[in-house]
Amino acid sequence: MKKDLTIKPPLLLSLAHCRLQQRVASSTERVSEMESSSSSSSTAPARSLLLLLSLLVLAVVPHGGDARPPQLQLVRGARQMAFDEGYTQIFGDGNLALLRDGRLVHLSLDESTGAGFASQDLFLHGFFSAAIKLPADYAAGVVVAFYLSNGDTYEKTHDELDFEFLGNVRGREWRVQTNVYGNGRTAAGREERYDLPFDPTDGFHHYSILWTRRRIIFYVDETPIREVVRTAAMGAVFPSKPMSLYATIWDGSAWATLGGRYRVNYKYAPFVAEFGDLVLHGCAVDPVDRSAATSCGDAGYEEAAALSAAQRAAMAAFRRGHMSYSYCHDRRRYPVALSECPLPGAAASTATGRLFGPDGMKYDGRHRRRRRSRDSSS
What we know:
Blueprint: E1 11-12, H1 15-37, H2 44-60, H3 83-86, E2 87-91, E3 96-99, E4 104-109, E5 115-119, E6 122-133, E7 142-149, E8 160-166, E9 175-181, E10 192-194, E11 205-211, E12 215-220, E13 223-229, E14 244-251, E15 271-285, H4 301-305, H5 309-322, E16 323-330, H6 347-353, E17 359-361, H7 365-377
Parallel strand pairs: 1-3
Antiparallel strand pairs: 2-5, 3-4, 4-15, 5-14, 6-11, 6-15, 7-8, 7-14, 8-9, 9-10, 10-16, 11-12, 12-13, 16-17
Helix pairs in contact: 1-2
């Protein structure tokens, strides 16, 4: 069902052309410097040929982080789309810009506002993905989110599946957080936090959510990083109502960076997050007439959610090496672990539990040194 939203049309820019012009101008300046320093015997044809070759190289070679990662092949039939094929702006006025015929979206945060867009439809299960490049330099307090939610339809019983990217001070990496809410149970968050094995500001990387009747899988590029399996004990906490896809950038100064210690510094604005390779591959439904959902089927989602041995090994390696917080290990927040968490003494719990403190945070080198020094002094 299409959302009836009246918005200001987004600004359509040709940023790629502007960047090319800037690079051409820079190249021309460099060639001019070479000309002025060259000997008087240099011929004009040679100088012209050098300039022409420089311009051709700039025009055809991808520049730095503008290069796209390989297209994902996680779900059969999933295809990339332009913005106007499935999305609409929800806030931010001129802080949303469409580039490359609507296949690249820039969301910016400045002192006046952030920005965001949403899918035109609600979906019951599916595969949702985007290639995202995060703001560089100082980004403390900045939050970029890519998520599914139905909070505007089910205000008291909403579901949500989140990728949240939390900015940081210069020299420290962005952190990525995933979360699962179901049936309005926001007091029981299921957060996990990760460090990434790459710089997410240096280029595009795919972030994807696969949502089926039985499983939820979060991916970074082609690597599954988290799997939530539906259990009888979870009941309605497992998201099961139609949701929309959202992408936003906003000021999270109150909590995003070290609990609000570092706030957004607008001296570095605008903060720009780039979204490309947009994928909405799901069953669009009417949230009022739920009978339409019976025709959805699984469209290959359950097949894709059946992770291979290699995928499970890659997921285990990522979680072992890069997960920095897990709600399942947070005994201060949850003295009794939530139902889906491994039981104390289980192999999975024992293997990872030694790495985490009672606050759910992974021990770093400083924690380990303190523990050893206390043990040695006793």
